[in-house]
Amino acid sequence: MAEPFYITTAIHYPNGRPHIGHAYEMIAADAIARFQRAQGRDVFFQTGTDEHGLKMVKTARERDMTARELADEMSGYFSEMAEKLDISSDRFIRTSEADHYKASQAIWQAMADAGDLYLDRYEGWYSVRDEAFYEEKELVEGEGGVKLSPQGTPVEWTAEETWFFRLSKYQQPLLDLYAANPDFIRPESRRNEILRFVEGGLADLSVSRTSFDWGVPVPGSPGHVMYVWVDALTNYLTGAGYPDDSARLARYWPADIHLIGKDIVRFHTVYWPAFLMSAKIALPKQVFGHGFLLNRGEKMSKSVGNVVDPMALAEYYGVDALRYFLLRDVSFGNDGTFSDEAIVTRANADLSNSFGNLAQRTLAFIAKNCDGRVEAGRAEEADAVLLAEVDTACAGFTRAFEDLALSQGVELWMTGVFACNQYIDAQAPWGLRKTDPERMHAVLGTLLRAIRRLAVTIAPVVPGSAAKLLAQLGPDGDRDFRIAPPTPIFPRLELKEDA
Length: 499
Ligand code: ME8
Known about the structure:
By secondary structure, this protein is of the alpha/beta class. It is built from 17 helices and 18 strands. The protein has a 6-stranded parallel beta sheet, sandwiched between helices. Its main location: cytoplasm.
């Protein structure tokens, strides 16, 4: 049976419409999921929405609706976006679903059974925007001396009776975990940040709330709902069948990768493994904290008015141009910046002018001059050399994707495209048509083989276009190829007028 591979994105807060940062995370996870499927793995890929918590309650109140109504409305935009961007997720989870309540209450019970939960009074700082508690020493001073979280969000003083989780008990086990598994937190820079944080000591964590009721009820403790991060993180287990489906759990848990943004690495690499250790559940193999997308170098925010709608970009430039740009131009793990110009420049240079043009001129030539049919012809050494170069480029892509070096993988793949374009210019099949048709057939056959290999390899990045191109190439044959009449797969993009 195929080896399982479980990958997740963060689940997104549906307190507003999705922005390009959410799209980026889904696209990156999707490319990895598709890549692993192509390697023969039995992939389970989960994304979804994180619907509880004070942020949802407050946003709903401002809009004069209930949190559930807000979640229902906004979650729909996230699943629509996933569909539009060709995200091949196997489950779109909503934390308001019944099986998720069950999983959250089961992990809670397991932590209680371990003696890691106790009732006390919480007094401290809370950021609604981050849904996070902060210690006094972590706060920074904003304009006019107001206190802000280290992420720059407002904090408010909170005092209430809550359940606490004995996080302090897990300081050493967590440090041991990081030491024994250097790849548990990636990339390296985020790992160092977390090491410093945990070495600095861990306070017990408040894990329930009594001031509102939009959350998963704490078992046996009326009036308490779980702190939103306890239930949010548990979504990964819900998807894997926890607590009842032991066959499914054995197959998909522990997860191979939690792909998340750099702002929530602490929740995933400190709180989450501590909860799991307490509940005696295996730990995920890796947490990868990707960087942030910046709009022309600026942080996106509603107040600045520079938040970008990914659906509009996909609509105008095409889903695959957007996907290709994000995966090629952002060095995976670092922050990246985008603009309409950058998308157009990259998509035109690589997809239209190089790969698209290679495919189009090869296929159009065959359709026009060979009746769409290529024969074996007379092979020469240059043919084997090209195919070896393309193999090397595609193997480079595979190695890089195994290691999550996504942009490097795409860059290596492009070296195969360049090799084909040099080959076609050097072999000049248009000149051979009259003088040496046998040789012309061998050249065209070599190109078709090379283009097919390149299309199959890049499919996780540009799935829709690769599928169209593969359909035009027709069935793979050792000797004869029959190709359908070609239409350009990667049209040249024009910059949007008001961009
Ligand atoms: O944090 N660029 O949800 P969220 C790239 N519900 N990624 C970005 C980004 C940007 N500009 N802005 C946000 C939450 N993200 C929690 C997660 S998981 C159990 C719970 C990323 O909607 C962000 O880092 O605020 C996170 O990984 C994801 O989008 C969802 O953010």
